[in-house]
């Protein structure tokens, strides 16, 4: 189990480590790299996922609603426990808790722990996490300019329109031209490496991880508390078996790199989010192992 989990996490650390080295030795523009990822590559990954994923019919609205409820409740708990901090830091902690890495870490671990049935349901949670992240993230991080400015900023994000296009194409049952689909797939394949490089570059250009109260509280809630909170909310929504296991396992995932990209894009507390991504990624290794071992009990 530990070897399999290591084979999932180590590639993530390798790519981010390359970015860290580049950021340490070269003066790179992390903002430009984040814009390429956020506005060019992430929408392609979301569109490709929507057009190619076959979600099990056993997955219902309760699973998605339970996941959204767990993320929102976790973010609100973090906002209360963080105490008196600057508004930007409070929003950064809430975003760090709400947006989890249900993709490049969550999906491989789900396949290993739950098999194909759990993997299909975890894909649904991944898509829900992407939509949640690009809705809650901009609304929180962009809220300093008012609700209207936040909504306008949200509508300017290509990922939102990628979701709309993907849902429409699937609903009417048409297929994109082969050449277009191959282009989307190529962009999608480049997404995860580049966002991890962007994270590593940001960390490499800054000092070592700061264990501030915001980082510690956000990290503990995101990785340690969320599996238990997801279990309770899953029970409240009447989930059991594999859907409940997928929900609990998603709760053990670290903060998504997309949270860092959004903080960089909206000029939020980037350092707090970046440090939380790093701490939760490392912390999620033993926690995910323990949660995986306990899943048969559910």
Automatic annotation (TrEMBL):
InterPro entries recorded: Mem_transp_PIN-like, Na+/solute_symporter_sf
Transmembrane segments: 6-26, 38-59, 65-85, 92-117, 123-142, 154-174, 186-203, 215-238, 244-264, 276-297
Membrane topology designation: Multi-pass membrane protein
Location within or outside the cell: Cell membrane
Keyword Transmembrane helix part of the UniProt annotation: yes
Gene Ontology biological process terms in this record: transmembrane transport
GO cellular component: plasma membrane
Cross-referenced Pfam families: Mem_trans
Superkingdom of origin organism: Bacteria
UniProt keyword Transmembrane, yes or no: yes
UniProtKB keywords: Cell membrane, Membrane, Transmembrane, Transmembrane helix, Transport
Similarity remark: Belongs to the auxin efflux carrier (TC 2.A.69) family.
Name the UniProt record assigns to this protein: Transporter
Naturally occurring in which organism (per UniProt): Enemella dayhoffiae
């Amino acid at each position: 189990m530990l070897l399999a989990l290591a084979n999932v996490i180590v590639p993530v650390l390798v790519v981010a480590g390359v970015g860290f080295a580049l950021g340490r030795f070269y003066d790179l523009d992390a903002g430009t790299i984040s814009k390429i990822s956020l506005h060019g590559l992430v929408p392609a990954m979301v569109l490709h996922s929507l057009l190619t994923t076959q979600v099990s019919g056993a997955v219902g609205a309760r699973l998605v609603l339970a996941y959204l409820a767990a993320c929102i409740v976790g973010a609100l708990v973090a906002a209360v426990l963080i105490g008196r901090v600057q508004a930007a830091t409070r929003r950064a902690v809430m975003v760090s808790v709400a947006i989890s890495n249900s993709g490049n870490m969550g999906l491989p671990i789900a396949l290993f722990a739950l098999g194909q049935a759990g993997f299909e349901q975890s894909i649904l949670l991944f898509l829900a996490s992407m939509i949640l992240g690009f809705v809650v993230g901009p609304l929180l991080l962009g809220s300093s300019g008012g609700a209207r400015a936040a909504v306008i900023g949200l509508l300017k994000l290509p990922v939102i329109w990628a979701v709309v296009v993907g849902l429409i194409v699937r609903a009417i049952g048409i297929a994109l031209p082969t050449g277009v689909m191959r282009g989307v797939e190529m962009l999608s394949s480049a997404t995860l490496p580049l966002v991890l490089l962007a994270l590593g570059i940001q960390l490499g250009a800054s000092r070592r991880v700061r264990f501030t109260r915001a980082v510690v509280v956000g990290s503990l809630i995101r990785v340690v508390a969320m599996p238990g909170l997801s279990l309770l909310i899953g029970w409240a929504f009447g989930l059991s078996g594999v859907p409940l296991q997928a929900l609990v396992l998603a709760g053990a995932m670290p903060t998504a790199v997309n949270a860092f990209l959004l903080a960089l894009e909206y000029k939020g507390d980037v350092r707090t989010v970046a440090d939380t991504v790093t701490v939760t990624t490392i912390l999620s290794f033993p926690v995910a192992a323990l949660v995986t071992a306990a899943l048969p009990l559910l």
